[in-house]
Structure formats: C-alpha cells, structure tokens
Specification:
Blueprint (H helix, E strand, L loop, with lengths): L3 H17 L4 H8 L3 H13 L3 E4 L3 E4 L1 H23 L4 H11 L5 H16 L1 H18 L1
Antiparallel strand pairs: 1-2
Protein name: HTH-type transcriptional regulator MntR
InterPro entries: DtxR_MntR_Metal-Reg, Fe_dep_repressor, Fe_dep_repressor_sf, HTH_DTXR, HTH_tscrpt_reg_MntR, Iron_dep_repressor, WH-like_DNA-bd_sf, WH_DNA-bd_sf
Family: Belongs to the DtxR/MntR family.
Length: 142
C-alpha cells in the first residue's frame, strides 16, 4: 500500500500522463511544487515497488498496478471535491479541504461518500433541501 506521499506522486503522474501523454521529472516537480531531486528519489522508490518503470534520462511509465492506483486516487480526489460542493463548502476552500482529508479516509468511507454523491445527483431536490437547512442554520448563527 502506498504512503500518502506516494499517493500524491502517483495521482499527479497519472494526471500528467492522461493530459500530456507523458510525465517528466520536471513536470512532476512543478505540479507538486517540490525539487526535482525529491521527485527522482520518489520515482525510484515507486519503481522499486513496481508502480512505475523509470529509466534515468528516458522518462517513466506507469505499470498496470500504478495505473490502477492512479486512476482510483484521481477518482477519490474528484469525488471528494464533488461531495464538498454538494454540501456547500466554499469553492475557495475545497482543494485544501480535500488535500487535508483524502489520505485519512478508508476506501469503505470513500465508497459510502460515492453512494451519497450518487444519491444527491439522482435526487436534486435533496440538494435544494440541504441548501435550505444550511441557510436557516446560517441565519440562526449570525
């Protein structure tokens, strides 16, 4: 099982490959705002654990295992962002909130949040009802 730091790298590498067709050390470093030397160390670790294949000066590719985990990590991130929007979290804080909680939830909790998001998507009236409750509570608390 990858560590939270490894997950961040796998998620970003997966996104870069999906968007650009490749992921270079410099691209990963820019995206994660870390030094290229840190990326190289992590990429070597991910290679050792068979999440990707890395050849110095040639680049990297995700293994089937790495692609599967990367896709699931992107799904988790996107799902949590959507959940935050549904429950009315201010858009400016969503990314920080998701980054703060995504590594601390079990996959069972993620699956249940997925069920809840699906429920709200299939029942838009419930979202409207939730917004009314939030407004009422905001009015009371002011």
């Amino acid at each position: 099982m990858p560590t939270p730091s490894m997950e961040d790298y796998l998620e970003r590498i997966y996104i870069l490959i999906e968007e650009k067709g490749y992921a270079r050390v410099s691209d990963i470093a820019d995206a994660l705002e870390v030094h290229p030397s840190s990326v190289t160390k992590m990429v070597q670790k991910l290679d050792t654990q068979e999440y990707l294949v890395y050849e110095k000066y040639r680049g990297l590719i995700l293994t089937a295992k790495g692609k599967k985990i990367g896709k699931r990590l992107v799904y988790r991130h996107d799902l949590l962002e959507e959940f935050m929007r549904i429950i009315g979290v201010n858009e400016d804080g969503i990314y920080q909130d998701v980054e703060g909680i995504e590594h601390h939830l079990s996959w069972d909790a993620i699956d249940r949040i997925g069920d809840l998001v699906q429920y709200f998507e299939e029942n838009p009236k419930r979202v409207k009802d939730l917004k009314q409750v939030q407004k009422r509570n905001d009015d009371i608390n002011q």
